[in-house]
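Re: beginner question about structure tokens

> Can someone show what the tokenized structure looks like for a real chain? I only ever see the sequence side.

Sure, here's an example I had lying around. Input first:
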Amino acid sequence: MSSNFRYRSGVVKTISLPTANDAAVAHSVEVSDLCYVDSDVVYPASHLDDAGTAAQNRAAFAAAFCGVALHKTGLQTSETSAKLTTDPGYQLIATSGDFEFPCAATSWAPGDLVGVYAGASACSDQQVAQAKDMTEAIGIAKVPYNALGTSQTSIVVELRPRFVYAQVSSAQ
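And the corresponding structure tokens:
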């Protein structure tokens, strides 16, 4: 998916995480990609290894979810030149804030759990779905009053990455 600035409101806290430097595992990260950390390196959701089922993919992603990418790195879809991209060796990640992501037509309630959209074999970089429980959740839904009880094709998500909170609590 192309870079889309999805920030809507709230205080954005950021962390910088290293990107893969090995050409064999090089990957592109677009603005607003949902990202996770593996071995201290940040990756977009679609890079996650298949865990078996859609629910297992959502849970695996949620366990390593670190936030939303704030700049792009690597060659993007249909780019052949690096002139429009940067790769400073790190990815700036938003660990808090409210971001609006597309979703399948769903009726949301305030506080509903939100997870990454995952199929049976892959996760989406910039699409979300309702999470069944906390093991699949990456945030909570913020539903406007006028949208209550109606089917929505996008939802504002208040980020809640467990990875960040685990790092902070283990450092104390």
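Each token stands for a local structural state, so reading them left to right follows the chain. Residues 54-64 form the longest helix (11 residues).
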